[in-house]
Design goal:
Elements lengths: L2 E5 L4 H7 L1 E5 L9 H4 L9 E6 L2 E8 L4 E4 L13 E16 L5 H4 L22 E4 L1 H11 L3 H8 L6 H12 L6 H10 L3 H8 L17 E4 L8 H5 L4 E4 L1 H8 L3 E3 L5 E3 L5 H6 L12 H14 L3
Parallel strand pairs: 1-3
Antiparallel strand pairs: 1-7, 2-6, 3-4, 4-6, 5-6, 8-9, 10-11
């Protein structure tokens, strides 16, 4: 297990809730960048400390090794970055006691590496650093200073075994000989609610609106406008997705339920009410959707929903 430090001044609001790290593979001039290249070195189970606005704000655990990926939806942040880079799946837990490393340089200073350290000896951050490895002693000190429940974080954020869906995706990619074809790989993953599509959905939705479940391990990223009829942009658009518990995803995908823009749950006459009763789903308001989401929901209500 290794420990990593990531500077997220520009990307914290995207990467932490989205559950990922992303960087270009090279500098804008095409040159090498050590802090991008180490993205390919992180492994599942590694710890990642998120540094933003002079504070350590979150602790993450790597879920999957780096893969080549298109740039996530950073909105205006990262507009000058390349459209292709490294994507690392990381689940983060924001810590209650965010702290300034600068306030503890007496302890931190002796642990800074001579090369690629994330801080200066005076505690100020270093421009140009994105991801860098730190020593075990440094990592354990940061865990101590965070006063976080490390055992709980490890338990809740531990990398999950490869699911049947992921296994099937990998088989499909292999059988179709898609290795190296970034666009087709991402579209394959998006069809099953994974990859960049899932990350983009997480930037819009935080939990299943019907059940309230927020643990991403128990949720699916479901297309609102079906993947089969979406164009390439819509297939990866986070506004074209909802995070749903598996049984809710089943009902939504088959058109047994839908939502109007104001958040009212719509129930098809074709659905046996006994199913809703057994799954403890009642007609209620799940919260208003954005206008961008409602454009997709309008398609779902008109075409998919079995009114």
């Amino acid at each position: 297990m290794k420990y990593w430090w990531v500077n997220q001044n520009q990307t914290y609001d995207f990467e932490v809730p989205g559950g990922f790290l992303w960087s270009p593979k090279t500098r804008s001039d095409g040159g090498r960048n050590h802090f991008y290249e180490v993205m390919a070195e992180v492994k599942p189970g590694d710890f990642v400390f998120s540094f933003c606005d002079t504070f350590i704000k979150a602790i993450g655990i790597v879920q999957r090794a780096a893969v080549t990926s298109p740039k996530p939806d950073f909105r205006t942040a990262g507009s000058n970055w390349a459209d292709e880079g490294w994507y690392v799946e990381v689940e983060f837990a924001e810590i209650e006691n965010a702290f300034k490393p600068k306030d503890f340089m007496g302890q931190i200073g002796p642990l800074l590496a001579e090369k690629y350290a994330p801080l200066q000896l005076n505690g100020n951050g270093l421009q140009g650093i994105y991801l860098t490895e730190i020593s075990k002693d440094f990592g354990e000190l940061l865990l101590h200073l965070s006063r976080a429940n490390v055992s709980l974080i490890q338990s809740e954020l531990a990398p999950a075994p490869e699911t049947e869906s992921e296994y099937e995706i990998n088989l499909e990619i292999e059988s179709r000989k898609l290795d190296g074809n970034l666009e087709k790989i991402q579209m394959t993953k998006a069809r099953r609610g994974q990859g960049i599509f899932k990350a983009n959905v997480r930037l819009v939705e935080k939990f299943c609106r019907v059940t309230g479940v927020s643990n991403i391990k128990h949720l699916r990223a479901s297309h609102i406008k079906p993947w089969s009829v979406s164009n390439n942009s819509e297939k990866l658009d986070g506004y074209n997705g909802l995070l749903l518990s598996p049984h809710v995803d089943h009902l939504f995908d088959r058109g047994y339920i839908s939502f109007n823009g104001s958040g009212s749950l719509l129930i098809s006459k074709e659905l046996n009410p006994r199913v809703l009763e057994q799954w403890s789903i009642g007609a209620h308001n799940v919260g208003e959707f954005s206008s961008m989401q409602d454009q997709y929901l309008e398609y779902h209500r008109d075409v998919v929903f079995q009114s």
